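Our consortium's second objective concerns turning raw sequence data into structural hypotheses that experimental partners can test. To show how far this objective has progressed, the report includes one record in full. It was chosen at random from the queue rather than selected for favorable results. The single chain below, 288 residues long, was entered without modification.
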Amino acid sequence: MATFKDFRNNVKPNWCPGCGDFSVQAAIQRAAANVGLEPDNLAVISGIGCSGRISGYINAYGFHGIHGRSLPIAQGVKMANRDLTVIASGGDGDGYAIGMSHTIHAIRRNIDITYIVMDNQIYGLTKGQTSPRSEMGFKTKSTPKGSIESSLNVMEMALTAGATFVAQSFSTDLKDLTALIEAGINHKGFSLINVFSPCVTYNKINTYDWFKENLTKLSDIDGYNPNNRNQAMQTLMEHNGLVTGLIYQNLEKPSYQELVHGYSETPLVHTELELEEDKFNKLVAEFM
């Protein structure tokens, strides 16, 4: 059985020292081992941004996609090989800006993959511009007088779009983050895990200390029930989305794959693709 060390490779991450993404990488590796995966059972699909590099730092199948397109690629991988555990990953700019339409439709589609977003409220790779997750008044190179746009409440958005698994964590809480990724992998449907992953270079507002002062653990809220969608929405609004833990899970809704008519139990990778001559000629004749 594989251990988290088996999901390591020899590629050294070039994130800034102190970046929260290091912990996210470690949590993915630990979670994959804890649920019993082998490296060739896992595919990590990433987009553009600092966090997009993560697919090259994990010993598994990996694909570094273009900006905002990790989710359609990840969905295609899952549909082609249902035996793979597929994790899509990226940053808040990748998933909640240019890739937002893919995020919304992947949520409502409920395909059986896990999407981990490293949320630092800024564009890090392009040297510090405002993202859809930056608060109003946030000053960056792109908004020197402060952002005049409201921050996107992504967890509320996910619930509204019909998400069946919504969770949020903080990169310093490796134990909690690992457990949430394990739960997301085991969930039969689309799992969205937003991770507060501070950018130590360009975001001097949403720092580690800031999150420690402002985050509330859902486990500390008496009577919180992650199967109650209304309570989940109300709690998010009361805490301005600054909560960690399993926010909501719906175990009743079937996954996309369960609803696709004629979806073969045999993955394409194991399917016999050779056509008999008579069948080939018949197909060609349809276009003649």
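The partners drew two points from this record. Residues 4-258 form a domain with the Rossmann fold fold (CATH 3.40.50.970). The chain has a mean pLDDT of 94. Both points have been shared with the crystallography group to help prioritize constructs.
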